[in-house]
């Protein structure tokens, strides 16, 4: 671990000019840096399969007006969940991983990083695990139910009936995602690739989560997906951090492991019965550094408060006989990790720690349970 | 070709019960058929690289209200174009293909088909071409500018200011995409995998194309992408069918070939100067069968009328010395192709005809021009 720390401390300092350019480049076109900065691996990626499909969804009937007046009213699909997947040629029998993104984001979070490095989607595949990346219902390629917006436009519903579309400004992202204290002032040890922060901004899409059925159909779809895969490790991030827990409560048998990456919340109100059920599934919670940094969002607690909520949940699960643990890389002298830990410069190191946990806690356990 | 015709005529007829079930299953949950029906190839897919990035985009400043009141106002990225790509390990030097989707759809159009067969994205990669699949600006993982919707909700803009979200009902899709005369009545020779039509419905997302800047930023992004790739074949479908032409007018040098798949329009108003420029790039237009079928949308012409508009454009380009041609598979005794020709049961046959055209018209020409 000393060598890790050394390389961490000695990584090149980003020239201030680069940071200033990234921060001041706030008007006009974003620098078109993406494709030329995308890196290619030295060894090919050999896939048994790749593709995409949908989980869940329902057919509803809508009027011509609700459909935007392009054609006659009729039936459409809503609340389906898009899933893209890659299955490695090697590694048969390894548990699939399902990676779910956070608020105002899509499955893109897990793909090529803002500065063009390999995403966790491919990294875990190269380590032998099939990887399934959904877009949450209501976002990205999963679509959303547009009817209320068209009804408001037509004057047949009051404007307050249409759900807000949420976006984080860069000014919110910097403190809340813990890149620094405020926009353009990164933590000296920040692991986020600050020079590419504009590329992260492009990953954001509007989020109408508050307009979805409660609970979000994504949770049932995740449980169904784990069932269709005959067992999977569910990994959530931020907004979806607690979704693996909720999916496991629907069907703990097919939920072989739970990885909560910087979860927005670890629920404190589970019944003892629910804790008993969740304790049958190994749980790992992952949090980055600088958790005491004020989020800049008056309605949201610090990430340290959420960390403590997860410690409490881990305590309850352990008392009930569960295998639950916290991964705080700063305990291992890996400092400066951000909320977007899967995109941080040391993202492979973090991934390796998760893989190590899967190997010791999940795969063996699954083998035993067969 | 006789054998092709034979296999076409002798393909199994879909049992009426399956069609009726697909048609009548219009209430409640869509049948969860997707993952189990996804097929795996016999040979692995060997990729030099895969991943995703963005092209274009701009940073704008918005108020707290426009951002949905989650946090303080500030800067966000809008109008960027998400692109996912796969580069085959074999086939170095082959021209990349960029595949753009149609209205109310996303890049998913080109991925795994509704009935679980390999999509054109992977098929063209297996044939040695790097493939780049964007989501049009305003849709899917490219996101959209949500500000006006939040302003309407807050009462600070009139409801009529917010763009309509367009969706096609299944009742529109059947005649307009030429699966049959109306919902549940497929053409006897239809090549679309009718039993999986509910899975196509899930691919649809709301389309606010009318709310985008004019022309759509997707066109400039496609031209920029072709430039970043140092030359590419641009393939559009339906709504985006004419985008390759518009992108070529921005920079014909990097647009090595144009493939218009069932284009919504072939513009009739190009100047002679524009025709001269477009005539420097090889053009292929692809149309399926049953083009005389009424679309069921009173505002839209038949696909036969669009076909004739494209024949007129081909004529003008040829007169100007261009290599422009029409691919109508029914001329080759391949009958029953639909508007979603890349998802039809004979999609590989159609792809092979396009590959043949690229080999004869584009690659050689590019080599000559070097």
Structural summary, described in words:
The structure is a homodimer of 370-residue chains. Chain A has 370 residues and is an alpha/beta fold. Chain A is built from twelve helices and eleven strands. Chain A has helices at 2-9, 16-24, 34-37, 120-126, 147-153, 170-176, 197-202, 217-228, 243-250, 272-278, 303-319, 347-369, and strands at residues 28-29, 45-62, 74-88, 97-99, 131-134, 180-182, 185-186, 232-237, 255-261, 283-286, 324-327. In chain A, the strands form two sheets. In chain A, strands 2-3-5-4-8-9-10-11 form an eight-stranded mixed β-sheet, sandwiched between helices. In chain A, helix 8 (217-228) packs across helix 9 (243-250). The longest helix of chain A has 23 residues, at 347-369. The radius of gyration of chain A is 21 Å and the shape is globular. Chain A starts with a helix and ends with a helix. Chains A and B meet through strand 1, helix 3, strand 2, strand 3 and helix 5 of A and strand 1, helix 3, strand 2, strand 3 and helix 5 of B.
């Amino acid at each position: 671990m000393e060598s890790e720390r050394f390389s961490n401390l000695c990584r090149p300092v980003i020239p201030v000019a680069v940071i200033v350019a990234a921060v001041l480049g706030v008007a006009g076109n974003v620098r078109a840096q993406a494709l030329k900065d995308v890196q290619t691996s030295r060894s090919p990626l050999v896939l048994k399969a790749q593709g995409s499909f949908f989980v869940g969804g329902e057919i509803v009937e809508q009027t011509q007006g609700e459909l935007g007046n392009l054609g006659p009213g009729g039936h459409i699909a809503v609340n389906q969940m898009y899933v893209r997947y890659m299955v490695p040629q090697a590694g048969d029998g390894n548990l699939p991983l399902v990676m779910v993104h956070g608020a105002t984001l899509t499955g893109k979070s897990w793909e090529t990083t803002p500065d063009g490095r390999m995403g966790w989607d491919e990294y875990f595949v190269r380590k032998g695990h099939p990887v399934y990346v959904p877009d949450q219902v209501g976002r990205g390629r999963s679509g959303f139910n547009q009817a209320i917006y068209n009804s408001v436009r037509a004057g047949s519903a009051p404007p307050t009936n249409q759900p807000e579309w949420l976006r984080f400004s860069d000014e919110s992202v910097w403190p809340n995602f813990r890149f620094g204290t405020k926009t353009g002032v990164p933590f000296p040890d920040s692991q986020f690739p600050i020079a590419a922060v504009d590329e992260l901004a492009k990953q954001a899409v509007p989020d109408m989560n508050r307009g979805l059925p409660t609970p979000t159909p994504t949770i049932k779809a995740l449980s169904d997906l784990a069932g269709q895969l005959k067992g999977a490790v569910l990994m959530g991030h931020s907004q979806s951090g607690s979704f693996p827990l909720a999916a496991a409560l629907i069907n703990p048998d097919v939920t072989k492991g739970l990885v909560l990456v910087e979860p927005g919340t670890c629920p404190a109100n589970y019944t003892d019965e629910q804790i008993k059920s969740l304790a049958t599934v190994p749980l790992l919670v992952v949090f980055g550094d600088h958790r005491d940094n004020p989020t800049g969002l008056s309605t949201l607690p610090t990430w340290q408060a959420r960390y403590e909520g997860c410690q409490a949940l881990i305590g309850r699960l352990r008392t009930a006989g569960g295998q639950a643990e916290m991964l705080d890389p700063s305990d291992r002298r890996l400092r400066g990790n951000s909320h977007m830990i899967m995109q941080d410069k040391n993202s492979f190191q973090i991934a390796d720690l998760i893989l190590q946990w899967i190997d010791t806690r999940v795969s063996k356990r699954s083998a035993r349970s067969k």
